[in-house]
Amino acid sequence: MAEPAISKRKDEHLAQSLGEVEADVSAGFEAFDLEYDALPEIDLDAVDLKTPLLGQTLEAPLVIGAMTGGSEEAFRVNALLARAAAHFGIGMALGSGRAALLYPELLKTYAVREVAPVPLVLANLGAVQLKEEAFSAGALSAFTDAIGADALELHLNPLQEAIQPGGDSRFSGVLQKIEAFLEGFPKPVLIKEVGSGISQKTARKLARLKIAGLETAGLGGTSFTKIEAMRSDPGAGRLAGLELSNWGVQTADSILACRNALGKDRLVIASGGIRSALDAAKALALGADAVAMARPFLKAAMAGEEALFLFVESFLYALRTVCFACGCVRPADLHSALKKRDAARD
Ligand SMILES: Cc1cc2nc3c(=O)[nH]c(=O)nc-3n(C[C@H](O)[C@H](O)[C@H](O)COP(=O)(O)O)c2cc1C
Predict the structure, then answer these.
(1) 131, part of any domain
(2) Quick check: is 67 in a domain?
(3) Which atom of ligand 1 is nearest to the CA of 222?
(4) Which residue has its alpha carbon closest to ligand 1 atom 4?
(5) What are the pLDDT digits (tens) for 182-231?
(6) I want to staple 337 with a disulfide (CB 3.0 to 4.6 A). Which of 34, 112, 119, 315 is the partner?
(7) Residue 45, domain extent
(8) CA 194 to ligand 1 centroid distance, Å
(9) Best mutation site among 9, 94, 224 for ligand 1 pocket (most ligand atoms within 8 Å of CB)
Protein backbone atom coordinates (compact mmCIF):
# COMPACT_ATOMS: atom_id res chain seq x y z
CA MET A 1 0.00 0.00 0.00
CA ALA A 2 1.20 3.57 -0.68
CA GLU A 3 1.62 5.04 2.80
CA PRO A 4 0.88 8.70 3.70
CA ALA A 5 3.51 11.00 5.28
CA ILE A 6 2.18 10.26 8.77
CA SER A 7 3.19 6.60 8.31
CA LYS A 8 6.72 7.71 7.45
CA ARG A 9 6.85 9.68 10.71
CA LYS A 10 5.76 6.58 12.64
CA ASP A 11 8.55 4.56 11.05
CA GLU A 12 11.06 7.31 11.82
CA HIS A 13 10.00 7.31 15.50
CA LEU A 14 10.53 3.54 15.67
CA ALA A 15 13.95 3.71 14.00
CA GLN A 16 15.07 6.76 15.97
CA SER A 17 14.01 5.16 19.27
CA LEU A 18 16.57 2.42 18.87
CA GLY A 19 19.36 5.04 19.09
CA GLU A 20 20.50 7.23 21.98
CA VAL A 21 17.17 8.79 22.93
CA GLU A 22 17.08 8.46 26.70
CA ALA A 23 17.36 11.45 29.02
CA ASP A 24 20.69 11.86 30.83
CA VAL A 25 18.76 12.26 34.08
CA SER A 26 17.57 9.32 36.18
CA ALA A 27 13.94 8.47 36.84
CA GLY A 28 14.63 9.10 40.54
CA PHE A 29 14.24 5.57 41.93
CA GLU A 30 17.77 5.59 43.40
CA ALA A 31 16.41 7.83 46.18
CA PHE A 32 14.36 4.87 47.44
CA ASP A 33 15.03 1.35 48.52
CA LEU A 34 12.90 -1.68 49.23
CA GLU A 35 13.88 -3.41 52.42
CA TYR A 36 15.17 -6.86 51.64
CA ASP A 37 13.81 -9.36 54.14
CA ALA A 38 15.87 -12.53 54.51
CA LEU A 39 13.03 -13.95 56.58
CA PRO A 40 10.00 -13.10 54.43
CA GLU A 41 7.75 -15.73 56.06
CA ILE A 42 5.82 -16.39 52.86
CA ASP A 43 6.32 -18.95 50.07
CA LEU A 44 7.41 -17.74 46.65
CA ASP A 45 4.40 -19.63 45.26
CA ALA A 46 2.08 -17.52 47.40
CA VAL A 47 2.99 -14.33 45.52
CA ASP A 48 0.06 -13.28 43.36
CA LEU A 49 0.81 -10.57 40.80
CA LYS A 50 -2.76 -10.53 39.41
CA THR A 51 -3.99 -6.96 39.08
CA PRO A 52 -7.41 -5.55 38.19
CA LEU A 53 -7.08 -2.62 35.80
CA LEU A 54 -9.81 -0.73 33.94
CA GLY A 55 -12.32 -3.55 34.22
CA GLN A 56 -9.91 -6.31 33.15
CA THR A 57 -7.67 -8.61 35.15
CA LEU A 58 -3.97 -8.64 34.28
CA GLU A 59 -1.63 -11.44 35.32
CA ALA A 60 0.78 -8.74 36.53
CA PRO A 61 0.69 -4.95 37.01
CA LEU A 62 2.47 -4.37 33.70
CA VAL A 63 1.47 -2.57 30.50
CA ILE A 64 3.32 -2.22 27.22
CA GLY A 65 3.61 1.57 26.84
CA ALA A 66 2.01 3.52 23.98
CA MET A 67 4.18 3.44 20.90
CA THR A 68 2.90 2.76 17.49
CA GLY A 69 0.35 2.12 14.75
CA GLY A 70 -0.21 3.66 11.35
CA SER A 71 2.23 1.90 9.03
CA GLU A 72 3.06 -1.63 7.91
CA GLU A 73 6.16 -1.67 10.10
CA ALA A 74 4.10 -0.34 13.03
CA PHE A 75 1.66 -3.21 12.56
CA ARG A 76 4.50 -5.74 12.51
CA VAL A 77 5.72 -4.36 15.86
CA ASN A 78 2.19 -4.14 17.31
CA ALA A 79 1.47 -7.75 16.31
CA LEU A 80 4.63 -8.98 18.05
CA LEU A 81 3.83 -6.96 21.18
CA ALA A 82 0.21 -8.18 21.12
CA ARG A 83 1.33 -11.82 21.08
CA ALA A 84 3.54 -11.19 24.11
CA ALA A 85 0.79 -9.25 25.93
CA ALA A 86 -1.70 -12.06 25.36
CA HIS A 87 0.77 -14.80 26.31
CA PHE A 88 1.76 -13.15 29.61
CA GLY A 89 -1.63 -11.58 30.37
CA ILE A 90 -0.35 -8.01 30.49
CA GLY A 91 -1.86 -4.80 29.10
CA MET A 92 -0.95 -3.06 25.88
CA ALA A 93 -1.24 0.60 24.91
CA LEU A 94 -1.21 1.61 21.26
CA GLY A 95 0.48 4.60 19.70
CA SER A 96 -1.48 7.68 18.65
CA GLY A 97 -4.52 6.73 16.58
CA ARG A 98 -4.31 9.95 14.56
CA ALA A 99 -3.18 8.07 11.46
CA ALA A 100 -6.22 5.76 11.55
CA LEU A 101 -8.64 8.64 12.12
CA LEU A 102 -7.26 10.52 9.12
CA TYR A 103 -6.71 7.46 6.92
CA PRO A 104 -9.24 4.71 7.77
CA GLU A 105 -7.30 2.19 5.66
CA LEU A 106 -4.64 2.30 8.42
CA LEU A 107 -7.11 1.15 11.11
CA LYS A 108 -5.99 -2.45 10.76
CA THR A 109 -2.47 -1.52 11.95
CA TYR A 110 -4.02 -0.92 15.40
CA ALA A 111 -6.29 -3.98 15.49
CA VAL A 112 -4.16 -5.97 17.93
CA ARG A 113 -7.06 -8.00 19.31
CA GLU A 114 -7.41 -9.56 15.87
CA VAL A 115 -3.85 -10.84 16.32
CA ALA A 116 -4.11 -12.18 19.87
CA PRO A 117 -6.44 -11.97 22.89
CA VAL A 118 -4.71 -9.04 24.62
CA PRO A 119 -6.39 -8.67 28.05
CA LEU A 120 -6.35 -4.87 28.11
CA VAL A 121 -5.97 -2.50 25.15
CA LEU A 122 -5.53 1.27 25.51
CA ALA A 123 -5.98 3.55 22.52
CA ASN A 124 -4.10 6.85 22.35
CA LEU A 125 -4.30 10.37 20.95
CA GLY A 126 -2.58 13.72 21.50
CA ALA A 127 -4.82 15.99 23.63
CA VAL A 128 -3.84 19.00 21.52
CA GLN A 129 -5.49 17.28 18.55
CA LEU A 130 -8.91 17.47 20.21
CA LYS A 131 -9.05 20.98 18.78
CA GLU A 132 -9.51 19.50 15.30
CA GLU A 133 -12.93 18.42 14.03
CA ALA A 134 -11.70 15.02 12.88
CA PHE A 135 -11.04 14.05 16.52
CA SER A 136 -14.50 14.45 18.05
CA ALA A 137 -15.76 12.24 20.88
CA GLY A 138 -17.91 10.42 18.31
CA ALA A 139 -14.98 9.75 15.97
CA LEU A 140 -12.80 8.53 18.85
CA SER A 141 -15.62 6.37 20.14
CA ALA A 142 -16.00 4.72 16.73
CA PHE A 143 -12.22 4.24 16.54
CA THR A 144 -11.93 2.62 19.97
CA ASP A 145 -14.94 0.38 19.20
CA ALA A 146 -13.43 -0.68 15.88
CA ILE A 147 -10.19 -1.84 17.49
CA GLY A 148 -11.87 -3.10 20.66
CA ALA A 149 -9.94 -0.78 23.00
CA ASP A 150 -11.03 -0.78 26.65
CA ALA A 151 -9.97 2.80 27.34
CA LEU A 152 -8.29 5.83 25.80
CA GLU A 153 -5.13 7.63 26.79
CA LEU A 154 -4.75 11.28 25.82
CA HIS A 155 -1.17 12.46 25.79
CA LEU A 156 0.14 15.88 26.74
CA ASN A 157 3.39 16.74 24.97
CA PRO A 158 4.08 20.49 24.80
CA LEU A 159 7.87 20.03 24.80
CA GLN A 160 7.72 17.42 22.06
CA GLU A 161 5.38 19.49 19.87
CA ALA A 162 7.57 22.58 20.31
CA ILE A 163 10.61 20.72 19.02
CA GLN A 164 8.91 18.46 16.44
CA PRO A 165 9.32 19.89 12.95
CA GLY A 166 5.80 21.12 12.08
CA GLY A 167 4.50 20.21 15.57
CA ASP A 168 1.25 21.66 16.94
CA SER A 169 2.15 23.79 19.95
CA ARG A 170 -1.21 25.64 20.27
CA PHE A 171 -1.94 24.51 23.83
CA SER A 172 -4.29 27.34 24.80
CA GLY A 173 -7.74 25.94 25.53
CA VAL A 174 -6.59 22.31 25.66
CA LEU A 175 -7.83 21.78 29.22
CA GLN A 176 -11.36 22.91 28.24
CA LYS A 177 -11.21 20.72 25.14
CA ILE A 178 -10.37 17.69 27.28
CA GLU A 179 -13.18 18.54 29.68
CA ALA A 180 -15.74 18.82 26.86
CA PHE A 181 -14.43 15.65 25.23
CA LEU A 182 -14.90 13.69 28.46
CA GLU A 183 -18.61 14.62 28.48
CA GLY A 184 -19.18 12.88 25.16
CA PHE A 185 -16.73 9.99 25.25
CA PRO A 186 -18.16 6.77 26.73
CA LYS A 187 -15.02 4.86 27.80
CA PRO A 188 -12.53 5.52 30.62
CA VAL A 189 -9.90 8.14 29.77
CA LEU A 190 -6.41 8.44 31.21
CA ILE A 191 -4.04 11.33 30.63
CA LYS A 192 -0.32 10.78 30.13
CA GLU A 193 2.82 12.64 29.17
CA VAL A 194 5.40 11.28 26.73
CA GLY A 195 8.62 11.35 28.78
CA SER A 196 8.74 14.73 30.54
CA GLY A 197 6.37 13.82 33.36
CA ILE A 198 3.27 15.16 35.10
CA SER A 199 3.99 17.67 37.87
CA GLN A 200 2.01 18.42 41.00
CA LYS A 201 0.51 21.50 39.31
CA THR A 202 -0.50 19.61 36.17
CA ALA A 203 -1.88 16.69 38.18
CA ARG A 204 -4.05 19.05 40.24
CA LYS A 205 -5.50 20.68 37.11
CA LEU A 206 -6.30 17.26 35.66
CA ALA A 207 -7.68 15.79 38.88
CA ARG A 208 -10.69 18.12 38.61
CA LEU A 209 -11.73 16.36 35.41
CA LYS A 210 -13.71 13.12 35.08
CA ILE A 211 -10.65 11.07 34.19
CA ALA A 212 -10.02 7.47 35.19
CA GLY A 213 -6.39 8.15 35.98
CA LEU A 214 -2.96 9.45 35.04
CA GLU A 215 0.15 7.86 33.54
CA THR A 216 3.30 9.69 34.58
CA ALA A 217 5.55 9.10 31.50
CA GLY A 218 8.13 10.90 33.58
CA LEU A 219 11.65 12.11 32.99
CA GLY A 220 14.41 9.51 33.19
CA GLY A 221 13.67 7.21 30.27
CA THR A 222 12.88 7.80 26.63
CA SER A 223 12.84 11.51 25.84
CA PHE A 224 10.49 12.34 23.01
CA THR A 225 12.03 15.78 22.94
CA LYS A 226 15.33 14.11 22.09
CA ILE A 227 13.70 11.91 19.46
CA GLU A 228 12.25 15.00 17.74
CA ALA A 229 15.57 16.83 18.06
CA MET A 230 17.35 13.96 16.30
CA ARG A 231 14.68 13.96 13.55
CA SER A 232 15.13 17.70 12.98
CA ASP A 233 17.57 19.16 10.50
CA PRO A 234 20.74 20.46 12.18
CA GLY A 235 20.01 23.92 13.49
CA ALA A 236 18.40 25.85 16.34
CA GLY A 237 15.46 23.44 16.81
CA ARG A 238 17.74 20.44 17.16
CA LEU A 239 20.04 22.22 19.62
CA ALA A 240 17.10 23.48 21.70
CA GLY A 241 15.59 19.98 21.76
CA LEU A 242 18.81 18.38 22.92
CA GLU A 243 19.20 20.97 25.65
CA LEU A 244 15.63 20.52 26.91
CA SER A 245 15.55 16.75 26.72
CA ASN A 246 16.82 16.55 30.31
CA TRP A 247 14.09 18.77 31.70
CA GLY A 248 10.86 17.63 33.29
CA VAL A 249 9.50 15.77 36.30
CA GLN A 250 11.38 12.64 37.30
CA THR A 251 9.15 9.59 37.32
CA ALA A 252 9.46 8.91 41.07
CA ASP A 253 8.35 12.48 41.84
CA SER A 254 5.60 12.30 39.24
CA ILE A 255 4.13 9.14 40.80
CA LEU A 256 3.90 10.90 44.18
CA ALA A 257 2.39 14.02 42.56
CA CYS A 258 -0.22 12.05 40.62
CA ARG A 259 -1.19 9.88 43.57
CA ASN A 260 -1.44 12.92 45.79
CA ALA A 261 -3.69 14.78 43.35
CA LEU A 262 -5.94 11.82 42.51
CA GLY A 263 -6.39 10.34 45.97
CA LYS A 264 -6.84 6.59 46.42
CA ASP A 265 -9.73 5.89 44.08
CA ARG A 266 -8.30 6.68 40.67
CA LEU A 267 -5.51 5.03 38.73
CA VAL A 268 -1.86 5.96 38.58
CA ILE A 269 0.27 4.15 36.03
CA ALA A 270 3.98 4.73 36.53
CA SER A 271 6.12 5.05 33.41
CA GLY A 272 9.19 6.76 32.07
CA GLY A 273 12.55 5.09 32.63
CA ILE A 274 11.34 1.96 34.36
CA ARG A 275 14.16 -0.35 33.43
CA SER A 276 14.14 -3.16 35.96
CA ALA A 277 11.79 -5.14 38.16
CA LEU A 278 13.22 -3.26 41.14
CA ASP A 279 12.30 0.07 39.51
CA ALA A 280 8.83 -1.33 38.89
CA ALA A 281 8.49 -2.57 42.48
CA LYS A 282 9.58 0.83 43.83
CA ALA A 283 7.07 2.55 41.53
CA LEU A 284 4.31 0.31 42.91
CA ALA A 285 5.51 0.94 46.46
CA LEU A 286 5.35 4.70 45.80
CA GLY A 287 1.67 4.36 44.99
CA ALA A 288 1.29 3.29 41.36
CA ASP A 289 -1.37 0.70 40.48
CA ALA A 290 0.65 -0.61 37.54
CA VAL A 291 3.77 0.24 35.55
CA ALA A 292 4.29 0.75 31.83
CA MET A 293 7.46 0.50 29.77
CA ALA A 294 7.78 1.53 26.15
CA ARG A 295 11.30 1.53 24.69
CA PRO A 296 12.50 -1.63 26.52
CA PHE A 297 9.63 -3.55 24.88
CA LEU A 298 10.45 -2.06 21.49
CA LYS A 299 14.12 -3.00 21.76
CA ALA A 300 13.25 -6.55 22.78
CA ALA A 301 10.66 -6.86 19.98
CA MET A 302 13.18 -5.66 17.41
CA ALA A 303 15.44 -8.53 18.49
CA GLY A 304 12.63 -10.99 17.62
CA GLU A 305 9.78 -12.85 19.27
CA GLU A 306 12.01 -15.16 21.30
CA ALA A 307 13.97 -12.22 22.75
CA LEU A 308 10.72 -10.39 23.52
CA PHE A 309 9.20 -13.36 25.35
CA LEU A 310 12.42 -13.92 27.34
CA PHE A 311 12.45 -10.22 28.28
CA VAL A 312 8.88 -10.30 29.65
CA GLU A 313 9.33 -13.67 31.36
CA SER A 314 12.50 -12.60 33.16
CA PHE A 315 10.98 -9.23 34.14
CA LEU A 316 7.97 -10.93 35.71
CA TYR A 317 10.18 -13.56 37.36
CA ALA A 318 12.25 -10.80 38.97
CA LEU A 319 9.18 -8.80 40.02
CA ARG A 320 7.65 -11.87 41.66
CA THR A 321 10.97 -12.53 43.42
CA VAL A 322 11.18 -8.95 44.72
CA CYS A 323 7.67 -9.27 46.18
CA PHE A 324 8.67 -12.60 47.77
CA ALA A 325 11.86 -11.21 49.36
CA CYS A 326 9.93 -8.21 50.69
CA GLY A 327 7.44 -10.59 52.29
CA CYS A 328 4.64 -9.20 50.11
CA VAL A 329 2.00 -11.56 48.72
CA ARG A 330 0.60 -8.85 46.45
CA PRO A 331 2.32 -5.97 44.62
CA ALA A 332 -0.10 -3.61 46.36
CA ASP A 333 1.59 -4.55 49.67
CA LEU A 334 5.04 -3.32 48.55
CA HIS A 335 4.44 0.04 50.20
CA SER A 336 5.30 -1.58 53.54
CA ALA A 337 8.87 -2.28 52.35
CA LEU A 338 9.61 1.21 51.00
CA LYS A 339 12.49 3.19 52.50
CA LYS A 340 13.96 6.53 51.58
CA ARG A 341 17.63 5.86 50.88
CA ASP A 342 18.96 8.17 53.60
CA ALA A 343 16.60 6.71 56.16
CA ALA A 344 17.62 3.19 55.08
CA ARG A 345 21.26 4.00 55.91
CA ASP A 346 20.57 5.53 59.33
C1 LIG B 1 8.79 4.62 19.42
C2 LIG B 1 7.97 5.33 20.43
C3 LIG B 1 6.76 5.89 20.04
C4 LIG B 1 5.94 6.51 20.99
N5 LIG B 1 4.72 7.00 20.59
C6 LIG B 1 3.86 7.49 21.52
C7 LIG B 1 2.53 7.84 21.16
O8 LIG B 1 2.11 7.72 20.01
N9 LIG B 1 1.72 8.31 22.15
C10 LIG B 1 2.13 8.44 23.45
O11 LIG B 1 1.35 8.83 24.31
N12 LIG B 1 3.40 8.13 23.81
C13 LIG B 1 4.25 7.65 22.88
N14 LIG B 1 5.53 7.28 23.26
C15 LIG B 1 5.97 7.54 24.65
C16 LIG B 1 5.83 6.30 25.52
O17 LIG B 1 4.49 5.90 25.64
C18 LIG B 1 6.40 6.53 26.94
O19 LIG B 1 5.60 7.48 27.61
C20 LIG B 1 7.84 7.03 26.93
O21 LIG B 1 8.58 6.35 25.94
C22 LIG B 1 8.51 6.81 28.28
O23 LIG B 1 8.59 5.44 28.59
P24 LIG B 1 9.95 4.57 28.46
O25 LIG B 1 11.03 5.37 29.14
O26 LIG B 1 9.66 3.27 29.09
O27 LIG B 1 10.22 4.43 26.98
C28 LIG B 1 6.37 6.64 22.33
C29 LIG B 1 7.60 6.08 22.72
C30 LIG B 1 8.40 5.43 21.81
C31 LIG B 1 9.69 4.83 22.27
Answers:
(1) yes
(2) yes
(3) 25
(4) 67
(5) 999 999 999 999 999 999 999 999 999 999 999 999 999 999 999 999 98
(6) 34
(7) 5-168+180-345
(8) 6
(9) 224
